[in-house]
Amino acid sequence: MKKILHVVGARPNFMKVAPVHSALQQYANVRSLIVHTGQHADYAMSEVFFRQLGMPGPVYFLGIRSGTHTGMTASIMLEFEKVLSKESPDLVVVVGDVTSTLACALTSVRCGIPVAHVEAGLRSRDREMPEEINRLLTDQLSDWLFTTERSANENLIAENIPAHKIHFVGNCMIDSLQNCLPFADAGPLLQGMGLTSGAYALMTMHRPSNVDDREGLGRVIEIVRLVTARLPLVFPVHPRTRDRLMHFGLWNQLAGMARLHCTDPLGYLEFIGMMRSARMLLTDSGGVQEETTYLHIPCLTFRRTTERPITVEKGTNVLIDSLSAQQLEPHFQDILEGRSKCGEIPEGWDGHASERIAAVLNQAVG
Ligand code: UDP
């Protein structure tokens, strides 16, 4: 029997690990265990996803929650090392680009355990993003690199990763989206807010560069003002953003705005239901850029660069390079007047990426 450990830590990890873990169940010789570092640990940012994605609970919960990136990295490494020495897995799978991804990849390599990275090779080329450093270093440490778009293969080759380690498999987050869409229903939420399908915008905002200081948050409020003047806006507020709004005394100003519906972070089924029925998304999320492309929903992304260029080239994504209502205005108007990109679904975003990943992993440990 071979053993594979899957690491989850933060919200965007769950929808990537769930389908890979599930696809591995068909291999009788492989036992898959989930380790949760605890980076996101409350119900709305973690537990709800296990339930809705049908993923078994973690066998280990490391309980590492707060602190600086450095402190969290160090604490995760110390705790994960204990798990590795107890379990001696044949392989560790890490996904995405969060602190847990790099911390666990580095610990595994130090312990002589090979690492597979799901969603490898994405590059924003903005090293001020903590995620970019996590991506670069995790890829250097990994033996199997699974990519979601062809540009990621090119990035890895340019960084001297040997071609035989790179596997273009498509996007396993889209596997989760496909699996869950039949169960997603925005109806009750829309009814509760008095909204109708197609007649509201949906927003997420949580990147440190956008929400960590007062100036950024002021700009977010300007954007909300512009949008709500013409369209109701639903804003599930990330805990980080809520904390910063509270810290700067801006929460009441935001939450009291007309036609704005601030909510807690939504469960996955609720969020993808709301996304599917939205007129447009306004976001700085990584994953939402991909999900909107798959759903053919217009997406305006407040980022200078994106590590997922296919969402701009082929999909429905448009980058707005500064957090500014003025810059948003023409793009917002285009969508309202029906001049948005329809987009195509990228290669390999077909609901079977996890099966392709599982096949390679099974061979790897076999
Ligand atoms: N998401 C969710 N509830 C929300 C907001 C987002 O379930 O209220 C999902 C979304 O569908 C996507 C993932 O969370 O699958 C994206 O996570 P996030 O934006 O936190 O991280 P990023 O992708 O930016 O790393």
Considering the chains and any ligands shown, give keywords for the structure:
366 residues; Rossmann fold; 2 domains; seven-stranded parallel β-sheet; six-stranded parallel β-sheet; globular; binds uridine-5'-diphosphate
What this model shows, in words?
It is a single chain. By secondary structure, the chain is an alpha/beta fold. The chain contains 17 helices and 13 strands. Helix 1 runs parallel beside helix 2 (43-53) and helix 4 (99-110) runs parallel beside helix 5. The radius of gyration is 20 Å and the shape is globular. The model has no long low-confidence stretch (mean pLDDT 97). Uridine-5'-diphosphate is lined by residues 11-12, 15, 204, 236, 265-266, 268, 271-272, 285-288, 291.
Binned, the helix content reads 40-55%
Mean pLDDT: 97
Query: Which structural class do the helices and strands define?
Result: alpha/beta
CATH class of the largest domain: Alpha Beta
| Topology pattern, helix = H, strand = E | EHEHEHEHEHEHEHHEHHEHHEHEHEHEHH
Strand content: 5-15%
Extended strand count: 13
**Compute the gyration radius: what is it?**
20 Å
Low-confidence stretches: none
Side-by-side strand order of the widest sheet: 3-2-1-4-5-6-7
The coarse silhouette is globular
CATH architecture of the largest domain: 3-Layer(aba) Sandwich
Alpha-carbon distance between the termini?
9 Å
Number of helices: 17
CATH third-level topology of the largest domain? Rossmann fold
* Count of individual domains: 2
Assigned CATH superfamily of the largest domain: Glycogen Phosphorylase B
